[in-house]
Amino acid sequence: MFVSFLSYVIAGVMTGVAVWRLPAVIYGDAHRRSLWACYAGFAAALWLKSPSVKTWLNGSAIVDLSILAKHYVSILAILAICTFVVTNYGTSDQGEVPRHVAVSRWVTRVGTQTAAGALVVMTVLFFTAVHREQPSIDFMVDHRGQWGASAYMTVFYVYLGSASAICGYQWASAYRRADTRLLRTGLLMMTVAMGIGVAYVLCRVSFIWSAFVVDYDYDVATDFAQTTDLMQIILFFLFAIGASVPTTNTAASRLSARRALYRLYPLWRDLMTAFPDRTFSPPASRWREVTRLSTPGDVRLDRWVADIGDAVETLRHYAPPMLLPVAERVAAESEDARSTAEALWIRASLRAVTAGERRQQASAGLPSKPFTDTESESSWLLRVQDAYASITDEQAQVLLDTAKELTPA
After folding, report:
1. Fewer CB in 10 Å around end: N or C, the chain?
2. Are 319 and 178 within one domain?
C-alpha cells in the first residue's frame, strides 16, 4: 500500500517536472527537448504502472496491456535520455577524442537500432510466448518460472540496464569535470540514480531466472517485487531532482522576471496606453501579460524596459520645462526622492498627454543613470513604479498646473 502511494507521488513529481520543462519543446535546443521527452515518457510509464490506470487498461481486450504499454513508453523514454547524453557529450574540440565522447558516438550508432529491435522482440514474445489467461496483479510475481515471460522481461531489463550503465558512466565523467557546485550536485544525484537502476536490473533478472530452480513462495516474491519497486521509486526521485538542481538559478531568474513584470505592469500599461505605437500589441490584463508563454519572462522584461524608456523619451514633448524641478522639490522630503521625482514627472506628463498638450520643443530629459544591464534598469523602474502607484490624478494635475505657471511663455 505504501509503495502504491509512493508510485502516485513520484508519477506526480515527474509529471510536474515535465510540465515545468514544457517551454523547452518550443524554445529549447535538441538536448533540452530530448530531456523533456525523457521526463514525459517516464511520467507516462509511472502512471501506467499506478494501480488505478493498470486496472483500467487490464480491463481491455488485450490482457496485461498496461505492461506492454508501460514498457513501450519506457523504452522510448530511455531512448530520449540516451539522445540527451549523446547531444551533451558527443562532441569535442580536442584533437584526440576523449573516451566519454567516443562512448557517446557509439551510443549514437547503436541506440536507435537496439531500441527498435527490443520493441519488435518484446512485442513478438508478448503475443506469442507469454501466458496471459488473466490480468496480472504483479507481472513478474505472477509469471515467475515461465519461459516466455522471463525472456520478455529479460529483453526489457537488458536494454534498461545497458542504458542506465551508459548514462551513469557519462554523468560520473561529467561530475569530475563540472565547475559549479549545483552542477556537481545534480550530476552526482543522477549518477547515483543510474547506479540504483543497474542494481535494480541485476536484482530483477537474477530473480526471474533463479525462479526456475528456486520455488519462491508468493508472499516472498511479492515482498521482493515491492522492495525493487521502492528502488525504482528512489531512482526516479533522484533523477528528477538531480536533473533539476543545475537549473535552480535559471528557475529563480525566470520567477524573478515574472514577479518584476507583475509589479511593473501598471506603469508599463499606462505608458503603452498613452503611446500604443511603442508596443507590439495593446496591453492585456495584468495576469494575461504576466503568464504569457509565447515569450520567455526575461525577454519580455527586457522589452518592457525598452518600451518604458521609449515612452518616457516621448513624454518630453508633453512635460513643461519646469516640471522636473517642481517634481524634485515636491519629492525632496520623501524616503526615495529620486524615484519619487521621476514618478511625479511621468504621472504629470501623462496628464498632459490626456489633455493633448504636446509641445514642439522637448523639455530636458530625466537624469541619466549608470545602468549596466536590464536587471539594474528594471530594479530602478520598480522603485519608480512603487512611487507612481501612490500618486493620484489630482496630485499629478496640481503638479502639472504649477509647472505650467512657472514655465516662461
Report:
1. C
2. no
In this predicted model, which residue has the larger pLDDT, 18 or 155?
155
The CA-based diameter of the chain, rounded to the nearest angstrom, is 107
Q: Report the distance separating Cα 63 and Cα 49, nearest Å.
A: 15
Mean pLDDT computed over 241-261: 77
pLDDT at 92: 46
pLDDT tens across 262-300, in order? 999 999 999 999 988 877 778 888 888 888 777 777 888
Burial class for 405, CB neighbours closer than 10 Å (0-12, 13-18, 19+): exposed
Residue 157: count other Cβ atoms within 10 Å of its Cβ: 19
Q: What is the DSSP letter of 278?
A: G
Q: What is the CATH number of the domain that holds 196?
A: 1.20.1070
pTM of the predicted model as reported, rounded to 2 decimal places = 0.65
Task: For residue 153, give Cα distances in angstroms to 89, 141, 144, 391.
Answer: 30, 12, 11, 71
User: How many Å apart are CA 276 and CA 260, to the nearest integer?
Assistant: 21
Q: Return d(Cα 68, Cα 139) in angstroms, integer.
A: 11
Write the Ramachandran bin of 356: left for phi over 0, alpha for psi from -120 to 50, otherwise beta.
Answer: left
Query: How many other C-beta atoms are found inside a 10 Å radius of the C-beta of residue 223?
Result: 13
Is the pLDDT reported for residue 393 higher than 50?
Answer: yes
Total count of domains within the chain:
2
Domain that holds residue 375: 258-406
Question: What residues have CB less than 8 Å from 373, skipping those under 6 apart?
Answer: none
Domain co-membership, 293 together with 245 = no
DSSP-derived letter for residue 236 is: H
Which stretches of 211-247 are DSSP H helices?
A: 218-244
Q: Answer yes or no: are the C-beta atoms of 105 and 90 closer than 8 Å.
A: yes
- Dihedral sign for Cα 233, 234, 238, 239, please: negative
CB atoms within 10 A of CB 403: 23
pLDDT for res 210: 94
Contact 43, 11 (CB under 8 A): yes
Cβ pair 257, 301 in contact under 8 A? yes
What is the number of other CB atoms lying within 10 angstroms of the CB of residue 147? 13
